[in-house]
Amino acid sequence: MANIFLNSALLVIIHFSVSTFSVKSTTILTDQLALLAFKDNIIHDSENVLTTNWSASFPVCNWFGVSCGSKHRRVAALNLTGLQLVGTLPPHLGNLSFLSLLSVRYNRFHGRLKIDKD
């Protein structure tokens, strides 16, 4: 009986540990996928800034124009001012749940961003 209780307790602990780990390991992945979708919607990048700097091979927080918060290590700011990018703003940007600054001035984007007001 004690072994059954111990095994059940271990299973519960392992379950919560694995689910907590998977949530933490996929949160920055969500940001990465959103930014890669953004990159895919760029039709002109004259300086090749995104082409040469935004790659799944490197940590998102080290990408050009991307700043991450120190607490959650999620994308908190995206500053692409003056890069003369041309493209659309994909809805995937809405997945950047910690984004507090988006600066895309002096570029040519079209499309709409839906902003939820809580």
From TrEMBL:
Q: Which SUPFAM superfamilies match?
A: L domain-like
Q: Which residues form the Leucine-rich repeat-containing N-terminal plant-type domain?
A: 30-68
Q: For this UniProt record, give its keywords in alphabetical order, as a comma-separated list.
A: Leucine-rich repeat, Repeat, Signal
Q: Does the keyword Signal apply?
A: yes
Q: Does the keyword Nucleus apply?
A: no
Q: Which residues form the signal peptide?
A: 1-25
Q: What Pfam families would the database entry show?
A: LRRNT_2
This protein's name: Leucine-rich repeat-containing N-terminal plant-type domain-containing protein
Q: Which organism is it from?
A: Hibiscus trionum (Flower of an hour)
